[in-house]
Amino acid sequence: MGYDLNKKLVIAISSRALFNLEDExxxxxxxxxxxxxKYQIENEDVxxxxxxxxxxxxxxxxxxxxxxxxxxxxxxxxxxxxSATSLRITKSIEKYKLDIARSAWSGGSDISKYLKxxxxxxxxxxxxxxxxxxxxxxxxxxxxxxxxxxEDEFSTQVKIAFDGDAVLFSEESEIIYKTQGLNAFLEYExxxxxxxxxxxxxxxxxxxISNIQAKYHEEQTPIRTALITARNSPAHERVIxxxxxxxxxxxxxxxxxxxxxxxxxxxxxxxxxxxxxxxxLENTSKVxxxxxxxxxxxxxxxxx
Length: 304
Hints:
Low-confidence stretches: none
CATH class of the largest domain: Alpha Beta
Number of helices: 12
Structural class: alpha/beta
Radius of gyration: 19 Å
CATH topology of the largest domain: Rossmann fold
Organism: Arcobacter ellisii
Largest sheet: 10 strands, mixed
Number of strands: 12
GO molecular function: 5'-nucleotidase activity; magnesium ion binding; nucleotide binding
Number of domains: 2
Strand content: 15-25%
Shape: globular
GO biological process, one term: nucleotide metabolic process
Helix content: 25-40%
Protein name: 5'-nucleotidase
Mean pLDDT: 93
Strand order of the largest sheet: 5-4-1-6-7-12-11-8-9-10
GO cellular component, one term: cytoplasm
Distance between the termini: 49 Å
């Protein structure tokens, strides 16, 4: 019987999201693929700096220490690099003592088609095209934004923060807000307060996280989640009722009503924050690892 990934939290992450490889990517963009491959091979033993996704991955993998016979978290490297250049990445994983055993190297081709075979719950990449393709396929995916912090922020509790509309929840309400304005949005939410919202691209990820949390006593859970949304009263009621209907756990919720998100995100101490709007991410990415969730290709939000 093969190794079963179905009952685990499976995170797929690109090498450029796990490690800071921006200088290497610049070589690729300015000098081409051959020079990039040459550089990676020649620098096989050079340890790259930690990337935006490193802290999240390291802290998530710690959870497996509580389940030595049944890992709860599986991290898989999924990269457009080829197998020849993979040695620098795998050696770096060993040096950083990350328990990552599985990887996929597509040699420049679309990586998103391999996400479902690996039962991926979350895909993190710095490649906008790969993230877009994953979202189009219905997989929770986000484009990692540059973030530099050399401090070792290892923690026994992983903190993950989400935006609401178009991230945890469907984009229906956000479309009304952007096309008809705030008053129409508030009226719509008031009228539909008892009607649960449809799932957004990250709803299933929250469900998987909730399943892991349920294995612990509440005060001992290794994952803490937060909703940080621009909604406020009375639009908060539908959110609360939706989460209750889904039967998922959300540890903290902030209904900011237009207040800047970045200070709340920083105070929460997020290992990563997911949002769909640049206006929020521009500031949060300066204080905490952040990632942008794109809309599906056919979404009208792309044209608003």
